[in-house]
Amino acid sequence: MKYYLYAMGAIFCWASLPAATGSGLKDLSTPELMFYSFTSAALFLYLKEVGASRSFKIHLPSKGGILLGIWGIFLYHLVYYHALDRAPLAEGAILATTWSFWIVVFGSIIKSRRLKPMVLLTALAGLGGAALVIGSGKTLEFNPSHLKGYCLALCCGLIWSSFSVGIPLMKFKRDPMTPFTIMAALLSALLFAWTRPHAMPTPQALLSAVYLGTVPLGLSFFLWNRAVSKGNLAVIGFLSYLTPPLAVLLVALIHHQQVAPQVVGGMVVIIGAAIVGNRYQ
Known about the structure:
Elements: H1 2-21, H2 30-53, H3 63-86, H4 89-96, H5 98-112, H6 117-134, H7 147-170, H8 177-194, H9 203-230, H10 233-240, H11 243-255, H12 261-279
Helix pairs in contact: 1-9, 1-10, 1-11, 2-8, 2-9, 3-4, 3-7, 3-8, 4-6, 4-7, 5-6, 5-7, 5-10, 6-12, 7-9, 10-12
């Protein structure tokens, strides 16, 4: 049970971003966003590690682990930000959300050695529920001119899902998220330097990037690793579908906005799919 609480903690971290930052990140380019957020995330996780171990030493994983970390932490976010730059927000977010679908599929195959039809159907239903929430109040149109952005968003789904499934298969002896995030911060610094010059960000943009680094990145990485290392991946995949509706609900709660009926309907579909899908695990 506690592993699903870790997963929900990570999901709440991701869902908190729109409510906490609003449009504060819109003026940052991808290299700027990567640099400021990953620097904050690396510092947060390193200080947490020092506090827990009473040691300033960083324990690096194996070469395979390092490649997995670059793949799942640095490359995923680089591709994700570029995808949303090249595709409309709603359509890009829906396609990127396919990582939840793939985690359910991969997790079910790992557990049962086969993909049960009902698990596949409920995973698709969960994806539909998430799409209903993200597309609420918007006219969705998959325009061929944004094909590159759509492809990048679909790649995001495969990158994060394979990373999440790869963590328990690697059987790390220590939490790998701190070295993973430090490596991502170093690579982001190189990208930032390579694409200079950059203007000094506004205080709002900088604070938003720091929040992104410490909570939706740093804290969520720690919680997500705890969840996927030993939890049922298929169940965690179903839970992750709740990220879009929770994000909308938090924005509505904090900024006193109304919640569209499609959001409530999408959340009901997601919860129903998770309950039915869990029965067929």
